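Why does this matter for the project? Reviewers at the last site visit asked to see concrete outputs rather than summary tables. In response, this paragraph embeds two records directly. Each consists of the residue sequence and, immediately after it, the corresponding structure tokens. Nothing has been edited or filtered.
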Amino acid sequence: MAYQAGWQRSQPRPVPESLEAQAYLQDYAALLEAVAFPSVVFDHRWDVVLSNAAFETLFRGVGPHPTAMPGDNFLRFVLFHPDAATVLGEHESSWCLPMLAHFAAAVERHGQDRGLQSIRRDIAQDPIMEAAYRQGLPHWIRAVGPDAVEHDGAVRPLVHPDPRWGRTDCRIVGETPKALQDMGYTRMTLVLREARRTPATPGRTVRAGRGAGHLRVV
């Protein structure tokens, strides 16, 4: 079906049982594909249900990972993929901490969910991530205010593989129709801005960070 198209996944996409819901998702996938900006639909675990070609293009340069591919689970990608910082600018403050805040809220609502429990165990296995989650996150939310953790309307930096975009910003737009809400899904679109034009500093090269223990904000 249309919403199962795209790059090869390490796990199957979640599929609703209702035939009517499946038909709706097929049609919604066609709508999503017509959008020029990266757009993705995920469930309460951040398991990806739908994504368009622009979303796949944004992350085409990331290497393989058994559990944290962006087309499988977007939260896992942000937190655990060693290549995440090569695409998501200001990775820790602009992406990791807001996503951890949303994860903490999801755990409060769906504490017995096995998928969320699995993510929580993986966080606990990384001492730096665990410290950020248990100690740094509450301090960060108090410091920056509750608006900083919201996705809709936030402007966050990206590094797009297409040089026409390059190092840029995106505005995150949440636009979830009632039918998707009723299925427990959320849609997020990254509205890209024109590439930043910052002058290079002679003799200096800036490289995006990599590695599993990438969180330092605690």
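We now turn to the second protein, recorded in exactly the same manner.
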Amino acid sequence: MEIRGPIVLPAHREDIELQTSDGLRLVGELALPEDTAPVATLVTLHPLPTAGGFMDSHIIRKAAARLPALADLAVMRFNTRGTTSPRGTSEGAFDAGAGERFDVAAAMHLVRERGLPRPWIVGWSFGTELALKYAREHDIEGIILLSPPLHRATPDEVAAWAGDDRRVVILVPEFDDYLRPAEAAERFASIPDAELIAVDGGKHLWVGESQTARVLTEIVRAVHPGALPLPTEWPENDEAS
């Protein structure tokens, strides 16, 4: 069976609730490898909710659907404050990246509480702003930024990552709507050790299986390269949906 589109590979999936320090309940899901302990953890931050971003935005949903089985990764996804998905609605209201600081902290609290290993924060679009602004406050191995628009993260917040031991991996689509590779190289130049990956043919929303596969491959290359290359087929006799 070819691994593509909405296929969901076997994993242990659990509905979770996150409690923020300012009193909100956020809804989400934690997906774990079905038969083994995870080797690392992805805490995912979705695109802008006022533009349709939520925990089911396709790259995040497909990371949770595939990577526990294909790369032994734990994947946490959740709706930031005021965001709705089929899983439910997180309490509160969108705060343009300010109050969402508490949402990131609540996710990292659950990581610590569960003893999940080697956490990385993976942000997409608006989620990259939250990662740049707030991930340095937490015990992580690094951040992976997908299509960063750099609308809310200030130059000082970007430069604060310079000299940090934690890795910064940036995927910039060739045809991004907001920040393309040449400009991204200039605006991230303040982080000399950052790994900026220009993706030929890529677009901000990473639509299509080839772009999805490229993004998931680069995530795994950063976090657990021993799992590469990612399989493109799944045995017919193993349960998948």
